[in-house]
Design a protein that fits this description.
Protein name: Transglutaminase family protein
Pfam family, one: Transglut_core
Structural class: alpha+beta
CATH architecture: Roll
Radius of gyration: 16 Å
Helix content: 25-40%
Number of helices: 7
Organism: Streptomyces roseolus
CATH topology: C8orf32 fold
Strand order of the largest sheet: 4-3-2-5
Shape: globular
Distance between the termini: 17 Å
Number of domains: 1
CATH class: Alpha Beta
Amino acid sequence: MELMQQNPDIEAYLAVGEAVDHDHPLVRATAERIAADHPDAYSYAEAAYVFVRDTIPHSQDSGDPRVTWRASDVLEQGTGICYAKSVAYAALLRARGIPAALCYQRLADDDGANPALHGLVAVKLPGEERWARQDVRGNVPPGVDARFSLGEERLAWTVRPEFGEVDYPVLYAGPHPVVLRALRAAPDRPHLWRTLPTEL
């Protein structure tokens, strides 16, 4: 699948936004702490990936009812669903001058029921011609083994078209409006689970 920038200007994928708020002191401090041990772009991108994937639990896995949508809130509260964790990772990348985009899959149950959007991040490291999608959701349930990769994708799930699942190719500079609306309107995660967007 060929990934496509919604905005042709690469600067859009470095910009500060309402959700990707990498000008926030907490985001910048977190980025600086990670960069202290990982000064080059590749090792930093991988270390930031592991940090978000493994140290910020997905709120469904942990049972946390809070809903976060800004990168700074995800880092401060230490929780978020895939959309929010993706925003946090994008912000940590942009804080170090690495272009980062938000992108999505449509996933479903094994019988095609209960479709929902799943959030990913695409990164473009210096010297790389192509964007590479990353999945920071967290490796739960057992058997999920998402990893940082610039070559063959190592996402949590591979789409199954026979069940109506979709890889959306467009790369967004901020959360897609349907995703952001759902996050901002939800008073808690149980409510959010009932109102998750099902397609772009």
